[in-house]
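Help needed: design a sequence for this.
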């Protein structure tokens, strides 16, 4: 069993959302066995910025479902979308 890198776009609830605090909450919400490889802020439109989160997780059945569910439950998150997935 290998590992998978996934890039996930996390949209905040609004332009007033503190992205640094959101990043901390996302890191704390990660399921066991998943680790963050990096964060990047991506401008979207009208002052809204998305957090692009790269995570490393085991290559198991269900893929990124657990991470998406965990991120969706975090305070300040509007939506979660997997952008890219690849084997390491």
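Sure. Designed sequence:
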């Amino acid at each position: 069993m290998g590992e998978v890198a996934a890039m996930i776009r996390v949209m905040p609830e609004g332009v007033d959302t503190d992205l640094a605090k959101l990043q901390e909450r996302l890191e704390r919400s990660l399921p066991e066995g998943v680790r963050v490889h990096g964060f990047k802020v991506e401008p979207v439109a009208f002052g809204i910025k998305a957090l692009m989160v790269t995570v490393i997780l085991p290559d198991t059945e269900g893929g990124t479902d657990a991470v998406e569910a965990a991120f969706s439950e975090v305070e300040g998150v509007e939506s979660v979308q997997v952008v890219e997935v690849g084997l390491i």
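The two ends are 11 Å apart (CA to CA).
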